[in-house]
Protein 1
Amino acid sequence: MDTLDDLIGRLAPDTLLRALAPDQLEILLRKATRRDLRAGETIIAQGDETGDFAVVVLTGGLKISMVSAGGREIILNYCGPGELVGEIAMLDSGPRTATVTAAVPSSVLILPSRTFLDAATASPASVEGVMRELARRVRQLNLVIESDRTFSMAPRLARALVRLVDPDSADGRLRYHPSQSDLGAFAGLARENVSRLLSEWEAQGIVARKGRALLVRDHAYLQTLAEFGDEA
Amino acid sequence: MDTLDDLIGRLAPDTLLRALAPDQLEILLRKATRRDLRAGETIIAQGDETGDFAVVVLTGGLKISMVSAGGREIILNYCGPGELVGEIAMLDSGPRTATVTAAVPSSVLILPSRTFLDAATASPASVEGVMRELARRVRQLNLVIESDRTFSMAPRLARALVRLVDPDSADGRLRYHPSQSDLGAFAGLARENVSRLLSEWEAQGIVARKGRALLVRDHAYLQTLAEFGDEA
DNA sequence: GCGCTAGCGTGATGAACATCACAGACCGCG
DNA sequence: CGCGGTCTGTGATGTTCATCACGCTAGCGC
């Protein structure tokens, strides 16, 4: 079980779990049950009524997506080791609004909602931590809405790429290898335009290609594009 | 102080305050200080670093807006009596990301963050209530993002109107009387197109005009448009 | 009354982007 | 090796919407 201690050591920075006191976190994680997923396997399906658990990624990566009214797939996020997924339905016990599938072979922990709530309410520090973290999420989403409204294609794709770079990799490798269609569904634009933009950026040395894989060369450029749009 | 009891009686349904136990709520509200605002007066400014209080609307209405990277105004929400505003920065003690001004002459209560947190952490029921309410907010925002991405003008304007109708009014009056420019900033489209759409809808009997004021005649139509888009 | 301003209606133009169509390129698998 | 699938590049076309440009109206102060 030393993967568990590993996990606690490098929990993702922006996750709800970080808000819990360390001792409670450890108890919580030891109570959870482990599960392995094949690539493409679904663990949460949009529309499920019984959303009484959340999922912690141990290894691999999950894709969170939903199908829009028009029938198009929208990818909301990719989650890697140390991140918590499905906590919204767990907290408000509503139906699942998105589907979660394994992007690559993965192993996860299943956290029943009661277990999580017990840990979260155990001390005032944990309570305030969880509330703070939830508030941060709301803040983040507000920014996304604002940028979605006003940004054009390029900044949106830039934001998608920035969210996908592997922070541990020096040469700007991505954490996953999405197809251009996936990138489009993630950034909210058509597959053809992903292709056109990437070619352009490759010519300018902003991204590079190594076989299938995409490398982000000029992270700073993409970052400012993602943050301020192309009018800045 | 009977306005206070009034307020407690008809708190807005989707507000964080609802999550608190009634006795704590009353204590909390009695500790808050009251303030009156003239129309157009600003109570919270985007960029303020000391976001250590939230605001409860007693009478009137507040407009929550921000300025986008391109310099355009974006109206995020209108809040009426019984609603809580500014709770995000209060909870995560980050900077203010939006500006709050009085849309009409209003009176509000100022809730210091410490006061709110004490009430929220007082009992496990309150804690779970607040978490549930925050989670609901996140869920709501995810839906907004999804629809913003895929919806065209008409559904977006429909959603704006649905959010503005006065639930207490039988004839579909709005809670405020926004100009077409404001409606555009709220729904994310150009003023001219607001004009065109409203004319079209008026011809179809979906909305009506009484002087300046707008009346929503076919609420159900707008509702389904807002929810499923124009492909349904 | 007269001007003055904020808000409205509506056509013409253009930019941004989705969609369509098709031609390679790559890759596993028999 | 060849063959079918999925992924990719790139032009042509069309839609959707913002933008520009203007004239109109309705208050409102004087």
Note: Chain A has two domains: 2-125, 148-228.
Protein 2
Amino acid sequence: MNISRTEFANCKTLIKHKEEVEDVEKKMEIEIRRGPWTVEEDMKLISYISLHGEGRWNSLSRSAGLNRTGKSCRLRWLNYLRPDIRRGDISLQEQFIILELHSRWGNRWSKIAQHLPGRTDNEIKNYWRTRVQKHAKLLKCDVNSKQFKDTIKHLWMPRLIERIASTQNVEFIPNHYSPENSSVATATSSTSSSESMASSFYGGDQVAYGTSDPNSGNWFNGGDAFETLWSFDELNKWLLQ
DNA sequence: AACAGTCCCAACCGCGAATGA
DNA sequence: CTCATTCGCGGTTGGGACTGT
């Protein structure tokens, strides 16, 4: 077994630390709060961060007077309380981006989330697990199988493009569009490939639409469940071809 | 109305990596 | 170099909401 010195040291530290924490918690009967956050806790966290900023979560938790772990505070802030969190249904465009980026990077939720302003990795992960995996289950195929990936690439994504093109004007193309990325113009017509559409939306590997205002009526809005894009029978027929 | 089954999401957990003393 | 602490990621789960019978 190959293990680096650092890894070995980390293992030892982890075990020792865990034992110590458990020991102290037992002895002192410290009541670390778990479960759903109360309004008061939220207010404490928000007001503390607005005054002192985020980071150093363990000490932040103590200083803010919260009987929570630093981890719990961080999660609550990042996934729920942050002011730039975008709520509501995942739009068609966002669905498209998730499908496209997942096909490239797999379960790299945080990386995918970087390309969806206001969406958290947790939200995207939940979306994938509840919606996309549900379809794979219905079709009785593995979500990582080539068959299912092909379904996404050749059926779902083109359908999404059609729907997006039919519901959006050219004016609603992403605001990072530039003349050198002229594929966008054709991408919004029904004959484009999903690849060119994808690159037009999120600018390849760069975060290209970070300036989109989540609250304005831009191309991000107008969510629509992708279940409405096709029927289950239709999907099944395609799979059996 | 009552119950059972399913869906969905907030929150937790374990782990590895990074950072600082 | 070692040890302690913190951060961030991906996987999992508990329970409320919703839907069907």
Note: Residues 5-28 of chain A form the longest helix (24 residues).
Protein 3
Amino acid sequence: MNRCFARSIAGFNVNKVCKLSCISFCTLIESSKIDDPIEVIKPPKDDDPIVVAESPEIPIWVKISENEDDFVLPSLSYWIDNYKRNEAKGYDETTISNKSDIDAKKITKVLRERFESLDSVVQALNDSRVTPSESLVAQMLKRFDNNWKSAYGVFIWAESHMGAKFSPAMYDVLIDCLGKSKKFDLMWEVVKQMVDIGENYVTINTMAKVIRRLGKAGMHEDSIDAFRRIEEFGVKRDLLTLNVVIDSLAKEKNVERANDIYLEFKDEIPPNSHTFNSLMHGWSKARQLGKVQTTMDEMREHGICPDVISYTTLIEAYCCEKDFRKVDLLLEEMQEKGCPPNIITYTIVMHALGKSKEIDKALKVYDKMKARGCVLDTSFYSSLIYILSKAGRLKDAREVFDEMPERGIKRDTQTYNTMITSVCKHTQEEEALKLLREMETKGVNPDFDTYAPLLKMCCKLKRMKVLSFLLTHMSDNNVSVGLGTYSLLVRGLCMNGKLKHACSFLEDAVMKGFIPYDTMFKMVETELEKEGMSEEKKRIQELKLIQPNTC
DNA sequence: GTAGGGTTAG
């Protein structure tokens, strides 16, 4: 009785009847792309047989809709072609019942619930009767890396079933995840656990993650402190770790402290080019051109010759000042000194020219490189696509994108992201979704930056159905749906008159244990006020008072 | 994780 019959799911032929368990059916429904031409005759309930039949007319989706508004009737028929193709490939029950896939989906389903505490996550996972594996955990940590409670829950649950400790690398992933969510007490607890497991469990990688995550959270003194005490964790305090802390501080807008640390330790730990390059980069980002130059001088005084990275950093600093005359001089100097510019140097120069509306000069850099037979890479092309699109030349940008394979350059995530962003900026919805689909067929993995412009565009166009499709798509592709996503959605929906949806996303974020930015609340409240929706406003204000559970 | 992707609107 636990089996049910389904017909014509997701483009399967009507004549082809497949047997699916309830769970398979639900996972299929959950993972199915938008606008499948199906009609669920009977809503799925546990242990209930399900009958699905093809809708005779337009595709209708009747499943799980509590709110009609969420499921706008489809217009994106081209997704359906995809299914036709899948059908041709013989996509059937065997494909969808792949065990590890099913496990991943089961776990994901469990983790999408809202949990009060870490213990309740672990409990729910215990009840799921899934047997954990190392690869399943790795996948889930990635999928939920913006959601510490789920990630840590999976980790604890799995380790308790595996009968052995995870590898140091897996622990490092957990450390990074907790640091990303600013759960520093928990992060340190895990570091201590690692120390207790045995020697060499904590490595320079672990401590680099700790230092960088503290730095990113603006806790610069804590990150410096972690470096000072690093030997307590069995990691040497050497040039490698010194460079990590200097680089982290320089990147996190605290190059002054980075410089302090360099001065404090330079006698004990003699710096190398890496140290100076990080400092130069920090000064450049702080828009302190003079300091970039003096750091380079100091480098020479230490008997270290500036390398291509030092020069490139200096050039980037002049690019920020739009001093392109000086940039040209430096490019010449590099040639003379036998340290010629490389592809990265040229990409920076071209990009800066393009951003400064000097598109013709930027294209001259491109021509020069082509003429010289330079090997151009994907990042270079992404820059080119970006500046062309920014200059309003979307057609040219697309042409460059299309030409890449002919020139033997593989289009990667970054290339697709740039193209998708460009197309979305011009609100070409179909094109944008086609590109996402193309990524799928070409096996290029999407990341957060792939979805962000698409989600924004959907907010603008009020495409709620596509939006919900994209969110599922994200998670299915192991791109974690975190605070960044919620923030984008709340803002986007608020600004485009989808207030109720903005509220429910805000609520969802709180329930998932995220602490929304103040601006998210403010924006929603102001809009609700404007619309005179006092009931909802009260609800949101109450939401603010909910203190997230820390364990 | 020593240098290259652009983000919040009006």
Note: Residues 1-97 of chain A have pLDDT under 50 and may be disordered.
Protein 4
Amino acid sequence: MSPTRAPKQTTHRGTGFLARGHDHRRCVDAALSRAEDLCAARSVRLTGLRRRVLELIWGSHKPLGAYQILEALRGERPGAAPPTVYRAVEFLVAQGLVHRIESLNAFVGCAHPGESHVSQLLICRACGEAAEIADPRLADTMDRITADAGFLAHRHAVEAVGLCRRCQIGADPE
Amino acid sequence: MSPTRAPKQTTHRGTGFLARGHDHRRCVDAALSRAEDLCAARSVRLTGLRRRVLELIWGSHKPLGAYQILEALRGERPGAAPPTVYRAVEFLVAQGLVHRIESLNAFVGCAHPGESHVSQLLICRACGEAAEIADPRLADTMDRITADAGFLAHRHAVEAVGLCRRCQIGADPE
DNA sequence: CCTGGAAATGTTATATTATAACATTCCGCC
DNA sequence: GGCGGAATGTTATAATATAACATTTCCAGG
Ligand SMILES: [Zn+2]
Ligand SMILES: [Zn+2]
Ligand SMILES: [Zn+2]
Ligand SMILES: [Zn+2]
């Protein structure tokens, strides 16, 4: 093993909360790169604004509200207004690059863009971070239940609020 | 079997969407009666206002927004204002008599008050009705998943949007 | 009964979230 | 270069939710 190899990092895809000290730039870079590829493949335009909003949302693993995004944009884009943000996130959500967390009125980067999946979010009420999981057991169960009910599900969402492992053991939430 | 027995009605508890022609007064009466009992047992006060708001929410199986409730209240309670409604629904939600549907900013009567359960709601985007189901498979799956993630869930919610059986077969949504 | 104090409701004002409507700019395409 | 649709800018307003303080209601205890 070379001592200069890149440090290990658990992938950010679907494995729950990441360690506090993880190299978050890799999360951001991977997300932006993935988004570029997906949008190119779909012939939709990941414009500068949309890319920047995606980057802001990926700024951390804490969901970001529309007006928080707006505030961040204002410094660099004087004309930014609510529709600026809402239109960008509408695009990002439609492309499956971002999830809207209904119970928070906030947005978080999707950990599985381009893969069909049910959004399953664990939201820590201590540190505020949200982790997306993609457990096929849950998707299967949902499919069975809706089928049993004769319900044709178009989209569904699972949101759980509680304490992540770190915050349970009394770690500093920040 | 006596010919004068009450007509059969599928219980409203956890069985999905009810038939169009079901005797909805029985849903309402059962819900209000159950609420009285629960509140008495818990020594909390189901005041006139709270009872009335619960009755309004149970007015149909379509989720009701806070300002729709307010509009209905205004005719009978001149001083009604947003806090009137929000405080009443806060109580009803805290007592588990009503669920808030985050994706709609609306409220619907709980089909399983007093029973510990995960809110699982199927929302028809054609007729607007919401059906609560209580499938133990889903609760179990959620428990396993959160446990695997080391997450201590405090509450969680499942919301699915799609088409109920009636609306799939082209029935008049109303 | 009366009454102290907490809970509930009334009342006014405002914060937060989201969208409508129309103008302008951008950008690929011819 | 200029046509046309998509994206963004701009202004205004709608829809949802809460803060803060005043008043009323309701009991439990005297
Ligand atoms: Zn990260
Ligand atoms: Zn996702
Ligand atoms: Zn009914
Ligand atoms: Zn319920």
Note: The first strand of chain A starts at residue 98 and ends at 101.
